[in-house]
Amino acid sequence: MKALVDKATCISCGLCPEVCPDVFDMDDDGKAVAAVNEVPKASQDSAKEAAEGCPVSAITVE
Fold it and tell me: Fewer beta carbons below 10 Å: N end or C end of the chain?
């Protein structure tokens, strides 16, 4: 499973690293990024929760 962040859509709200810090981080430009290539099995539910909670739907978890 991979997590992707559309940085052009991201509004830097910080929700995703708050919900799933094992997968998401804030980049130097203030936008969210997926900090791992593969979502760890233990973090899959929280990664999906972060994607569902993103206010601008900038996150895709597949």
Answer: C
